[in-house]
Amino acid sequence: MAECTCPVGWDSGCPxxxxxxxxxxxxxxxxLYENQILRKMLWLRHASHFEALYGDxxxxxxxxxxxxxxxxxxxxxxxxxxxxxxxxxxxxFRRREExxxxxxxxxxxx
Length: 110
Hints:
Layout lengths: L23 H22 L7 E2 L6 E2 L4 E2 L5 H36 L1
Antiparallel strand pairs: 1-2, 2-3
């Protein structure tokens, strides 16, 4: 007999539980389960240092970027990432401008 490959017995493609039928409750259960998986992956793999992650007692938060990956809505997390990305790009641009100015100063010294 084939082994079950689904986490809670609801995958219609599972050789054990799958009957090809779906219903709203099954779809909701699947979506909630996948949401948990994706939030955990996002929490573990976002750009903050591993030491900043807090995960005791099922928590999934980051003390560096102050995101609660378990409770915050996805739109809120996206907004934080967007603001952080814009700030990082602005800082990179500022550094590049400084380097250009330093380079021009050195050229003028020649």
